Amino acid sequence: MRFILSMLCLLVPLVSLAEEPKTIRENWQKHCKKCHGDEGEATKIGLRLKSPENVYEEAQNKAVEEILETIRDGKNKMPAFNKKLTEQEMNELAVHIEYSSLVKKVLDKRERIQRELKNIQRDYKVLPECENGL
């Protein structure tokens, strides 16, 4: 019994030394921000390396598996991150990019609809027979 307890005492510090996965934000700041900026828009460095102008727009028609493959294996001048990130961290970044691209798509569509509505309201003319209330 003492042997088991002493072994457990030795293992507890080892467990605490295991590196916990970093958050999506931490990984974005460390690995993505230099080229893709805070909000997914290409930085000067990113543009020089032929990064898409907006990574979220670029990802709008891509499956999460394709985004994950790009993160894992790299693409064009983007390096592979399979040695720098865990599988979980790469998956989380891929899902974040996919989700953010969907949000951007919805917000862009909402903005277009609001513009169209303003144009319709501006161009709308009351028919003469409706001016006096039928």
Total E-strand runs:
0
CATH class: Mainly Alpha
**CATH architecture annotation:** Orthogonal Bundle
**In what range is the share of β-strand residues?**
under 5%
Total domain units: 1
What is the helix tally? 7
Structural class of the secondary structure composition? mainly alpha
The percent of residues in helical segments reads 55-70%
**CATH topology descriptor:** Cytochrome Bc1 Complex, Chain D, domain 2
Distance between the termini: 96 Å
Largest sheet: none
**What global shape is seen?**
elongated
What do we call the CATH homologous superfamily?
A: Cytochrome c-like domain
SSE string, helices as H and strands as E? HHHHHHH
Descriptive account of the structure:
- The protein has 134 residues and is mainly alpha-helical.
- It has one domain (21-121): Cytochrome c-like domain (Cytochrome Bc1 Complex, Chain D, domain 2), CATH 1.10.760.
- It has helices at 2-17, 24-36, 44-48, 55-58, 64-73, 87-123, 128-131.
- Helix 5 packs across helix 6 (87-123).
- The longest helix has 37 residues, at 87-123.
- The chain is elongated, with a radius of gyration of 25 Å.
- The model is unreliable at 11-18 (pLDDT under 50).
